[in-house]
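Chapter review: from sequence to fold.
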Amino acid sequence: MGVAGFASLISWTNAVALSSPDPKRPTLGMAELIAMTSALMALNALSIDIMLPALPDIGRAFDALGNERQLVITSYVLGFGIAQIFYGPLADALGRRTVLLVSLGAYSLATLLCLAAPDFGWMLAARALQGAAAAGTRVIATAVVRDLVSGRKMAQIISIAMTFFMAAPILAPGLGQAILLVASWEWIFGALLAGGGLLWGWMLVRLPETLSVENRIPIRIRSALKNYWLAASNRITLGYMMAAAFIFGGLFAFIATAEQIMAELYGLDVWFALAFAGISNMIAFWNADKIVLRMHNAKQVDQHSAPQLYNTVAELAQRADLPMPKVYIIDTEQPNAFATGRNPDNAAVAATSGLIRLLSPEELAGVMAHELAHVKNRDTLTMTVTATIAGAVSALGSMAMFGSLFGGNRNSPLGGL
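The token string follows.
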């Protein structure tokens, strides 16, 4: 999707109002739904990555030596991961809005417990509770979108929300470092408390109950356990779960150790946030094509398995003087297509089966030509470089703002800004 397409999509969201079964809040604007979904998803990334610059100070405050301070991150992730399986049944039985408000309230309470923790063990327990409470935001945000829209609109909303969500883990360390330039690590929890409180107030006032009473499903523990067991005993499901576990295990190992390696081993100190933003963008840039294709369960095709699509792409690539990209089909009725890959030599294009059935050969060629234009113009590289620069500028701006407002820190290279 190009800049013009994104602009038109934003204009479309501003003009659409969604109806809900809540008589007190009968409508919700599409733009506000996207903003709510993005904010709820970003809360978790913020709660993890904003802590990274503060880990040394937290370790010294609680006499947590060496690698023990990494548990501040992993305890949150542990609570977040385990609690997710409970929020779905609860939200189906009690309603989305009620469970979300309780979840955000529990998040704020857990944040206060982190501030009041008398020792490191209590801090880890409070962080695990904080993660468990925040898990509700991730589960219910998606459920609310699914209640209000379906099909292509749902995919567009989630896609836009994920675009904004991806900025949170890149910018969060810079925000945490900016706070540390002028205050102690406790103020980072204060920022999380303020963010959780603002979200709670926003949801209380604006979010409608999106699940009608007649569509609610009572909690049946035996039935739920049976369904969980069926899912866990299915080989395909188990395989995907194990693959996801290894992928996210590696990701969070990087996040938990990043500060210790970059700030201490390589002596980056306050520049850690900028280095983290750059590395995060480069990892995403290098692996985005594989991640996106796997997320959509895309299957690679050739001239024999999908001659129409493959030959269309081959002819267009030849006309554009491009190397032949890999071609994928996604088995879904939703009409969609995209290009991915870090450069023309490592490019891939994908189209859904619904799009192929819906369009004529000429229309399909037009869509794939548009996607190949992204490859030829290296739009993926441009977006990655732009995101890295934006993250660096934002982090420096936050540090400069906090330094100017509160007098700065003479031990910081940015303290005099």
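Two observations follow directly from the output. The chain has 16 helices and six strands. The chain has a mean pLDDT of 81.
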